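Practice problem 4.
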């Protein structure tokens, strides 16, 4: 069995005690975090029947849940000091799932980029291209292509085999150059080219949106701050994905082009741990950059925020606002008196402005932002 790392490497107790908790943490965060993402998105999907865009994030989260579960093989092998104990059939299954779920994640990110492109750049075509049926077809493609590519090594085109340096089964990049080139072209080169094109176009729109706000409102009324925030959040997901894959990609390239090249075991292992950490990154990014997601996560977990736990000073000041006015003004105050010259009206309006809730940004892929009535923000929503 060929390996991409030194086959005579012996795991130390220190190495196991460091790597095993890290991989276990990735598994736990990846599964729990992405399950919460699906719950939050599905709840919002049920409240709004037209949000097909959330299907992409649900699909991405599902792939990460399954990939996190697949890491149990890796964790057990690390604990066993690098020795694969599950036999050849499970090695092929592990390799199949590793390739399938990794490639599905990347193609889904590509589909999300195209979705954002039509939502922000080609606004008039969005509803037609991302209809319910078309969205399901696109998702089917993002799973079907990786399925074929991950099945190919099992039926003879390349081979899934155990790799000491990664503690998983995976196709060896130097085993079949034709398969590797096909995989890199279909799963890496084309998707990244599409992602780059989409976000360059989005960046130009965002830049011109800031410089020519008035013209854009007349020409493309659906472009709004929420769409820009969503694009920024999802672009961050893609950037983190790329950063995590760069070291392993360089190592795999050297492994394919320099036959006989021996990669230091620790470097091969760390680069792959960085790759699999991607399965736990997205829920953290959503929470860090999206207040609405953060709030919904707390609701699902029944955890209140520090702001909610503090007594509301605004409510207290609002209830005592009338008593704090001079007695002569209290006698003049009435519900129907809306004269701006009336001090009572000025006092109450300033108080209501202060108490107006803040608009919460969201990951709403489909719902256009409607002009809000005075004092009433639009409802927060998701993709």
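Answer key:
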């Amino acid at each position: 069995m060929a390996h991409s790392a030194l086959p005579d490497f012996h795991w130390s107790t220190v190495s196991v005690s460091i790597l095993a908790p890290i991989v276990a943490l990735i598994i736990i965060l990846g599964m729990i975090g992405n399950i919460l993402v699906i719950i939050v998105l599905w709840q919002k999907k049920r409240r709004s029947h037209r949000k097909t865009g959330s299907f992409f994030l649900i699909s991405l989260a599902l792939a990460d849940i399954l990939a996190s579960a697949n890491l149990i093989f890796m964790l057990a092998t690390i604990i066993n000091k690098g020795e694969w104990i599950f036999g050849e059939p499970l090695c092929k299954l592990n390799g199949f799932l590793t390739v399938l779920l990794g490639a599905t994640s990347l193609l889904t990110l590509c589909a999300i980029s195209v979705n954002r492109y039509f939502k922000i750049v080609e606004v008039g075509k969005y509803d037609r291209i991302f209809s319910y049926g078309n969205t399901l077809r696109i998702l089917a493609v993002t799973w079907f292509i990786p399925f074929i590519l991950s099945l190919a090594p099992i039926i003879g085109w390349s081979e899934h085999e155990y790799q000491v340096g990664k503690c998983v089964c995976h196709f060896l990049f130097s085993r079949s150059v034709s398969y590797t080139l096909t995989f890199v072209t279909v799963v890496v080169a084309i998707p990244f080219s599409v992602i780059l094109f989409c976000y360059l176009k989005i960046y130009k729109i965002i830049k011109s949106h800031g410089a020519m706000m008035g013209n854009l409102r007349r020409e493309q009324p659906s472009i709004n701050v929420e769409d820009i925030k969503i694009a920024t959040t999802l672009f961050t997901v893609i950037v983190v994905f790329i950063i995590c894959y760069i070291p392993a990609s360089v190592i795999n390239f050297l492994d394919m082009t320099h036959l006989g090249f021996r990669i230091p075991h620790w470097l091969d292992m760390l680069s792959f741990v960085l790759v699999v950490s991607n399965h736990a990154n997205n829920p953290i990014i959503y929470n860090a950059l999206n207040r609405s997601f953060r709030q919904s996560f707390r609701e699902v977990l029944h955890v209140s925020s520090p702001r909610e736990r503090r007594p509301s000073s605004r409510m207290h000041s609002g209830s005592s606002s009338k008593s704090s006015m001079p007695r002569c003004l209290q006698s003049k105050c009435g519900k129907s008196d809306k004269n701006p010259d009336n001090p009572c009206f000025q006092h109450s309006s300033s108080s209501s402005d202060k108490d107006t809730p803040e608009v919460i940004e969201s990951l709403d892929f489909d719902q256009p932002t409607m002009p809000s009535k005075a004092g009433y923000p639009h409802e927060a929503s998701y993709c």
